[in-house]
């Protein structure tokens, strides 16, 4: 009986750990911290870096973060567009396909990683 209890506890621990590892939002947060935070901040009201603050990016019009000096290419591409998951996916795959001449020198070629990054960005509201 004691053995059984131990086994159940161990199983619960193992599945719990596996779940934490696979949580796309947690993984996305890690990827975002490692890959975007050198240039971007993510908290509400945090200052812009080399890139604009990304709090609330999903649902925000392109190139609309106040106080950030966007490139001409970025401003030209804005034209009333709003960031959604699909546009962010295209952006992270190849920023130049969304805003030719923009100044962000980063891309993420791995679709699964892009999806995790976007899952995390979705939580920033
Ligand atoms: C080397 C610096 C750098 C890195 C790394 C970087 N960015 Fe950027 N990002 C920029 C710059 C600079 C701009 C503004 C581009 C412009 O004005 O042309 C930008 C713009 C953006 C925008 C458009 C914001 C708006 O207000 O319209 C999004 C979205 C974005 N970045 C997401 C990301 C994500 C997500 C990552 C990580 C996966 C990332 N960036 C990594 C520099 C960077």
What report would you give on this structure?
GO terms for molecular function: electron transfer activity; heme binding; metal ion binding. InterPro entries: Cyt_c-like_dom (IPR009056), Cyt_c-like_dom_sf (IPR036909), Cyt_c_1A/1B (IPR002327). Residues 1-20 form the signal peptide. The chain has 125 residues and is mostly helical. The protein has a single domain, classed as Cytochrome c-like domain (Cytochrome Bc1 Complex, Chain D, domain 2, Orthogonal Bundle), CATH 1.10.760. It has helices spanning 2-22, 24-35, 72-78, 85-93, 95-98, 111-122. Helix 2 packs across helix 6 (111-122). The radius of gyration is 19 Å and the shape is elongated. It binds heme C. Residues 32, 35-36, 38-40, 50-52, 54, 57, 62-65, 70-71, 73-74, 88, 91-92, 102-106, 108, 117 line the site of heme C (HEC).
Summarize the structure in short.
Helices cover 52% and strands 0% of the residues. The chain is an all-alpha fold and 125 residues long.
Topology diagram in text:
Blueprint: H1 2-22, H2 24-35, H3 72-78, H4 85-93, H5 95-98, H6 111-122
Helix pairs in contact: 2-6, 4-6
Heme C binds at residues 32, 35-36, 38-40, 50-52, 54, 57, 62-65, 70-71, 73-74, 88, 91-92, 102-106, 108, 117.
């Amino acid at each position: 009986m004691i053995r059984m209890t131990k086994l159940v506890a161990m199983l619960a621990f193992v599945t719990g750990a596996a779940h934490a590892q696979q949580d796309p939002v947690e993984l996305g947060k890690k990827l975002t911290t490692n890959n975007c935070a050198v240039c971007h901040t993510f908290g509400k009201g945090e200052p812009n870096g080399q890139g604009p603050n990304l709090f609330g990016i999903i649902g925000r019009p392109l190139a609309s973060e106040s106080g950030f000096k966007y490139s001409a290419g970025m401003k030209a591409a804005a034209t009333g567009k709003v960031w959604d998951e699909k546009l962010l996916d295209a952006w992270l795959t190849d920023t130049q396909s969304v805003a030719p001449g923009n100044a962000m020198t980063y891309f993420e070629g791995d679709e699964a990683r892009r999806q995790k990054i976007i899952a995390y960005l979705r939580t920033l509201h």
